[in-house]
Specification:
Blueprint (H helix, E strand, L loop, with lengths): L2 H29 L6 H16 L26 E2 L5 H5 L5 H12 L7 H7 L5 H7 L3 E2 L3
Parallel strand pairs: 1-2
Helix pairs in contact: 1-2
Amino acid sequence: MPERLRLLLGFACLAIVLGSGVVMTLFTLRQASAQISSADFDRLRETVNQLVAAVPTTAITTTTTSDSTASPSTESSGRVVINRATLAELDKLPGIGQVRAQALLDARATGPFIDLDDIRSRVPKVPASVLADIAPLITFEE
């Protein structure tokens, strides 16, 4: 997952967790007959709404590809079909680069990859951490 998207999702989750925590605390205080004025409650609720609204969800963009425009090595879901991907497509995967992409192509020349363990055993230049990063971005389907 790209670092910027991961950071934005983290901020969104943080805002939601903080917002819901404040609201639940206020609700619990109110239910327990704690002394909190209606004005204080409304002011805190407005602050929570501002926190949630401040999350830059518009910065998160997604691109969709229809089946007719998808390349032969990319599924309509956007995942790269590892057994048909070109050097350029492999190079775009996080942590791969041209050297590892070429190593993947060389290993694939002996036969299609079956799963991540198959890549791990046949392409030692790709560390386990990189395989974990690209796992949700690739597929082995033909």
